[in-house]
Design goal:
Blueprint (H helix, E strand, L loop, with lengths): L35 H11 L1 H25 L6 H4 L5 H8 L23 H15 L7
């Protein structure tokens, strides 16, 4: 653009690149030389309400789909479902289920007379506990 003296001047009223050329300048092919980020920002600002509505609709659509799937499939597991239904061990487990957790080994130690709080009985409990801790568990 030329001024009154005939000098060539750039129009600096809009966005300008670091070399002084306007960012809206067109290259030889006629396309505006904007970066992809600038074009995306320009599009989002120009069509912001339409984009917001589209994203809200997509969010609602997928939320309904996820909720339908969540209501259809319920994942619940119980140790009682994983062990045989009619078994001597299973019956004991069901009988004392509220007493402890299913992964706990329970042993009843009964003394012939007196209390279990004697050095011999406590040593026996310690030995049994230690041997149970050393038992190898099969994962198959």
């Amino acid at each position: 653009m030329a001024n009154a003296d005939g000098e060539e001047r750039l129009d600096l009223t809009g966005p300008v690149w670091s070399d002084g050329t306007p960012s809206t300048a067109k290259d030889r092919t006629g396309f505006t030389m904007l970066s992809m980020g600038q074009r995306t920002a320009d599009f989002l600002l120009r069509w912001r309400w339409q984009v917001i509505v589209i994203y809200a609709m997509l969010t609602g659509f997928f939320s309904v789909g996820v909720m339908r799937i969540a209501h259809r499939f319920q994942a619940q597991t119980s140790v009682a479902d994983l062990i045989p239904a009619h078994n001597r061990v299973t019956d004991v487990f069901k009988r004392y289920q509220s007493f402890s957790k299913p992964a706990t080994v329970e042993i009843l130690l009964k003394v012939k007379s007196g209390t279990i709080y004697t050095p011999q009985t406590l040593a026996r409990i310690w030995r049994i506990t230690r041997e149970l801790d050393l038992v190898r568990v099969s994962t198959t």
